[in-house]
Amino acid sequence: MESHQPCVLVLSGKSSVEKELAVSLKNSNTLKLPDYPDVSLFMHSEAQKPSFADDAAFKIDSYMNSLSTTRFGRFLLWSPRLPSTHDVVSQNFCELPIGAVCVADVQLKGRGRSKNVWESPEGCLLFSFTIQMEDGRVVPLVQYVGIPRLDVRIKWPNDLYLNGLKVGGILCTSTYRSKKFNVCSGIGLNVDNAKPSTCLNAVLQKLTSVAHQLQREDIIAAFFNKFEKFFDLFISQGFQPLEELYYNTWLHNGQRVIVQHKDEDQDEVVENVVTIQGLTSSGFLQALGDDGQMYELHPDGNRYFMIFLSAC
């Protein structure tokens, strides 16, 4: 998307309250994307005109009809082509209600952790939504609250794998303002695009003879219906009630890794073989070394460099 091309956002809400807010935001024209000053806002009723007709477009009515939450996902921003859904919710956080979600059919500047590029072709489910929290100690754990179905597995900290291939990822960022943490959670999931790796529908077709296709609208609605319950449990009781569900879906039970870290006194790299035990209270990996020492492992070499071995 070139800078001179307008960025289209379609606003919608499940109830009259969210719909009135959508009208207010459209009339005030307060939603901005700094890198794309020309943002065109439309109501959902306007987006039903022939100029927006596209069989591959996100079906807002279908999504809203499947949604049963009280907060999350009820206010929707949709775009056929967008630089990044994460930018929309993070740069307009204070103008949007908590739980608002932005969905795009195609992302042009999707990203993962550490500014990695996230390929976002047609067929992906691409969305970001807003969360607000007060306890900073548990903010890092919120990215683990969503529990995937099928045989989707979690590769720590936030990659989703299916049959050994990456099919999705999660990106959470946060800022602190007025004694609260404003969290933007972005998720990308290969639903109907077999490239660049594989997708849910391709695997589903191999598992069953039924010609059923998973739809993006049903998946995201089901996600929010489940996430809202998990999030409320997480806020009231912490991560412990969700730990078993999380560990049942991740790839690292009993996995052995080599940890490399620099010994400042000896000015050399030291290697230790450790076994992953689970998560620390801060959401990092906890591992037990063959020397009996406990390790806290961080991603991206912030503290340790990890080489994953075969699970033992």
Automatic annotation (TrEMBL):
InterPro entries: aa-tRNA-synth_II/BPL/LPL (IPR045864), Biotin_CoA_COase_ligase (IPR004408), BPL_LPL_catalytic (IPR004143). Pfam families: BPL_LplA_LipB (PF03099). Residues 61-235 form the BPL/LPL catalytic domain. SUPFAM superfamilies: Class II aaRS and biotin synthetases. It comes from the Eukaryota. PANTHER family: BIOTIN PROTEIN LIGASE (PTHR12835), BIOTIN--PROTEIN LIGASE (PTHR12835:SF5). Belongs to the biotin--protein ligase family. This is BPL/LPL catalytic domain-containing protein. It comes from Escallonia herrerae.
